[in-house]
């Protein structure tokens, strides 16, 4: 059987996947009108005609929905391509058979028992297409996955869907993890050269009338279920334009033994940065004379990560993050180095679940930690303690402040993990702002603590710095606006003392 199919019938964005035999999972996701489902059908018809063995199981969450969607789409493309003589379409039992014996069967996951009895006249099952994959449960997908087995032929699953929630199992499984067996391709209406102009105009009209809808449903950005307390539209838009980290890695250092303190200490002169797949992402490198605050959240109840957020005290920009599953002593030492790196930044760590990182920083003689007023439980006297205490009084304040910052200055936020956490930080049924079930709040809370702790920074600490000749030359070349920023960082330029 000889059939010629021109590549011009396909959208160019999808062509790299037409002959893909390498990956077990092909994930086609994106916005409405992108043509991903049409390509899935086109690709299967191509494979049914060209491969000696290709038997496809098409699955949706509910069996009845196949008739007017996937089955109808197969028939439509068959007719459009003039292949009616080569395919037999049986609407009664939703089955399509190719002249060479390859076939397609359509089923639903609402009757999983019937899936066990699916058989093909010509050999075994080779391919599964899960349409609207965001509607099915992960356990149902797992059952399909384990069923697709056997030797001699390549087995493959195609998933097509529009992103729904950043907490969806599809995102966790195929986007938050690196699976070499999976390839993901995002497409939007802009990639569909066959889309009519009227429908394009309809989709683009949402840019002005409903920007968040446009971002999620037209551009295929991951959305959010529930009422987030942050401006979801602004957060989603920022996710599309965030910069890549300029550096990623961790700090290494040497230690020395202090006989006086009987402690092993970090040798500050030995601290150095090592590029690699480390927990620290730097979005804006340290600026000479700059002032910085680090907010920290330790792994506590319902959390798996230790997180630190570095904020530029002057500009308000989030310039660096540290996030990882690490022991608390490792986290504390990395914070120590990070604080030193960012001009001895003020470090403010939440003290609710564990005070170990705070005590470790104190043991290491880190010179600048956030100080709070606390009542001694024995004497009831007010004393000063290191660390930020989250309670009924402070939690609403720091969250409200972060909500305002996101609303007014979302461009300050550079980190993808932080922004995605904001989309799952919602108001519960009791009205309490918190992470959705299954989500994390480490990034949100550590950033909120960092911004709140800026109030404890004193500009006077940064007006006594000695100016170098290079600093003075930078000031002379700066614009009026830049000069104002430099004065905030270094103090007034009058009476300059050249350092060297």
Describe the 3D structure.
This protein is an alpha/beta fold and 500 residues long. The protein has 3 domains: 7-223, 3-Layer(aba) Sandwich (Rossmann fold); 247-459, Nucleotidyltransferase, domain 5, CATH 3.30.420; 463-500, no CATH class. Helix content is 31%, strand content 21%. The protein contains 16 helices and 21 strands. The chain has helices at residues 36-50, 70-80, 112-115, 138-147, 169-174, 197-204, 206-209, 211-218, 232-241, 328-341, 356-363, 394-409, 416-423, 442-453, 469-477, 480-490, and strands spanning 25-30, 55-60, 87-90, 95-98, 103-108, 127-131, 156-161, 182-187, 247-252, 255-258, 263-266, 272-275, 280-282, 292-297, 306-312, 318-324, 346-349, 371-375, 382-386, 425-427, 433-435. The strands form 5 sheets. The protein has an 8-stranded mixed beta sheet. Strands 12-9-13-16-15-14-17 form a 7-stranded mixed beta sheet. Strands 10-11 form a two-stranded antiparallel ribbon. A hairpin with a 4-residue loop joins strand 3 and strand 4 (95-98). The longest helix is centred in the last third of the chain and has 16 residues, at 394-409. 35% of the residues are buried. Residues 459-464 and 493-500 have low confidence and may be disordered.
């Amino acid at each position: 059987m000889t059939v010629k199919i021109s590549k011009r019938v396909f959208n160019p964005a999808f062509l790299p996947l037409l002959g893909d035999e390498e990956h077990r999972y092909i994930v086609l996701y994106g916005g409405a009108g992108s043509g991903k489902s049409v390509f899935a059908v086109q690709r299967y018809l191509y494979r049914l005609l060209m491969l000696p063995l290709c038997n496809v199981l098409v699955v949706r969450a509910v069996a009845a929905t196949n008739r007017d969607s996937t089955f109808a789409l197969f028939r439509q493309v068959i007719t459009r391509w003039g292949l009616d003589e080569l395919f037999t379409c049986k609407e009664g039992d939703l089955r399509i058979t190719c002249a060479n014996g390859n076939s397609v069967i359509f089923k639903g996951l609402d009757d999983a028992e019937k899936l066990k009895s699916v058989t093909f006249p010509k050999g075994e099952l080779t391919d599964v297409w899960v349409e609207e994959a965001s509607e099915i449960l992960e356990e149902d997908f797992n059952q399909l996955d384990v069923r697709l087995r056997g030797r001699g032929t390549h087995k493959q699953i195609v998933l097509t869907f529009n992103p729904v929630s950043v907490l969806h199992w599809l995102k966790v499984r195929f986007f938050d993890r690196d699976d070499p067996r999976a390839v993901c391709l995002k497409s939007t209406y802009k990639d569909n050269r066959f889309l009519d102009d009227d429908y394009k105009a309809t989709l683009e009209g949402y840019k002005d009338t409903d920007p968040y809808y446009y971002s999620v449903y037209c551009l295929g950005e991951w959305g959010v279920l529930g009422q987030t307390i942050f401006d979801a539209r602004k957060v989603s838009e920022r996710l599309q334009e965030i910069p890549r980290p300029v550096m990623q890695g961790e700090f290494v250092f040497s230690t020395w033994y202090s006989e006086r303190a009987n402690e092993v200490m970090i040798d500050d002169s030995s601290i150095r940065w090592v590029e690699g797949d480390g927990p620290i992402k730097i979005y804006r490198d340290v600026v000479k004379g700059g002032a910085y605050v680090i907010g920290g959240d330790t792994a506590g109840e319902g959390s798996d990560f230790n997180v630190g957020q570095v904020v530029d005290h002057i500009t308000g920009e989030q310039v660096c993050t540290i996030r990882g599953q690490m022991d608390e002593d490792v986290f504390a030492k990395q914070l120590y180095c990070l604080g030193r790196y960012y001009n001895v930044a003020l470090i403010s760590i939440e003290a609710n679940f564990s005070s170990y990182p705070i005590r470790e920083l104190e043991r290491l003689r880190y010179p600048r930690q956030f100080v709070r007023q606390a009542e001694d439980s024995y004497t009831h006297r007010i004393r000063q303690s290191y660390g930020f205490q989250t309670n009924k009084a402070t939690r609403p304040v720091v969250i409200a402040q972060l909500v305002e910052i996101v609303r007014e200055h979302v461009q300050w936020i550079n980190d993808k993990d932080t922004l995605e956490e904001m989309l799952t930080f919602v108001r519960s049924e009791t009205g309490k702002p918190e992470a959705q079930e299954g989500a994390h709040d480490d990034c949100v809370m550590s950033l909120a603590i960092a911004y709140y702790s800026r109030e404890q920074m004193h500009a006077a600490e940064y007006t006594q710095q000695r100016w170098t000749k290079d600093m003075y030359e930078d000031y002379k070349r700066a614009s009026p606006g830049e000069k104002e920023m430099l004065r905030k960082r270094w103090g007034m330029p009058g009476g300059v003392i050249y350092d060297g």
